Amino acid sequence: MAKILVTGGCGYIGSHTLVDLIENGYDVLCVDNNSRSNAGILQGVERITGKKVKHYKVDLCSFDDTHAIFQENTDIAGIIHFAAYKAVGESVEKPLMYFENNLVSLINLLKCVQEFQTPWFVFSSSCTVYGNPDEQMVTEETPPKPAASPYGYTKQMGEQILSEFQKSNPATSVILLRYFNPVGAHPSIEIGELPIGKPMNLVPAITQTAIGKLPQLSVHGSDYPTRDGSCIRDYIHVSDISHAHTLAIRYLEEGRNLGGCEVLNLGTGNGVSVLEAIHAFEKVSGQKLNYSMGPRRPGDVVAIYANNDRARTRLGWEIKYGLDEMMDTAWKWEVRLKEDKQLFAMVDAQLN
Ligand code: WQD
Hints:
It is a single chain. By secondary structure, the protein is of the alpha/beta class. It has a single domain (3-351), classed as NAD(P)-binding Rossmann-like Domain (Rossmann fold, 3-Layer(aba) Sandwich). 43% of the residues lie in helices and 17% in strands. The strands form 5 sheets. A 7-stranded parallel beta sheet has the order 3-2-1-4-5-7-12, with helices on both faces. A two-stranded parallel ribbon has the order 6-15. Strands 8-11 form a two-stranded parallel ribbon. Helix 1 packs across helix 8 (238-253), helix 5 (95-116) runs parallel beside helix 6 and helix 7 packs across helix 11 (323-339). The termini are far apart. The model has no long low-confidence stretch (mean pLDDT 95). The site of UDP-4-deoxy-4-formamido-beta-L-arabinopyranose has 19 residues, from helix 7 and strand 9.
């Protein structure tokens, strides 16, 4: 069975992707320095799959440590590269930390890919590369705009590095997956999102407000030119996102890929406003959310959602979860974190 190296495998999408890969017959390795994640999440992966995942606690910014993994595993067939810093606001305050971490790690990885001729490489990119698009619905051909943050620039530069690398290393095929807004938790509620500190993202902010960890949710802007004045996003269940990664590996494994460096949008194709997301949460959770209309958040895109035709036709990818399941699993995970002391201890360990 093909061996897949998952960097950032202790993270939110990384851990869900480990589960999906294992359930689809792949052998997996996890590389994660746990600077922004908790290795305890791998216990949840094991509870779901029955498989213990080999974890290398390595910083990809160390070429020697990264190279040693490839020397020990010369049979790595594919890499799914999640490991990166991703807090938009932090990247504005600390741009050099973001450029160094996100780009040096990628370059070290690609040096190993070049030396060991790894055939498949899947990159975790983001709808952030589109900036504030002229049209609300974006296709992969929509020209990227200036990024709204250094974090966004690291994703744009990452795509450019991979495109140029692939041209000079045709033995490696590359797929760039542009995520929209991943939310929710695995249906087993054994794994989910573990935000560090006060969550900046909407759905964990909703669930932490509902459970009482946060006093009130502020809606960042209600005067936008949208149907209800709040921003529109393409929220997509993390399990739909993770399964697309397995399908991308299978697409490469079966040689169906077109070669070169392919870009695919991973969104549902549905735009949902902040207020609509809040009302969906209230409906499925039965919780009345304490929220208020606040000022706009600098850097926010007004409205964006995906045209996902390419991923559906090339990968055979189908969306399984709707907005209600996204909110339902997110809420059940938040409740579990509060009630399950062992898990809670894991979160505590991560926060301190
Ligand atoms: C969504 C909407 C906020 C919190 C994120 C990542 C980006 C990419 C996509 C990874 C916005 C509003 C939020 C709150 C609010 N992910 N909001 N009150 O900004 O679309 O981008 O997902 O690659 O890197 O940053 O997601 O969840 O932060 O915000 O009103 O307390 O919710 O203003 O309109 P965003 P988000």
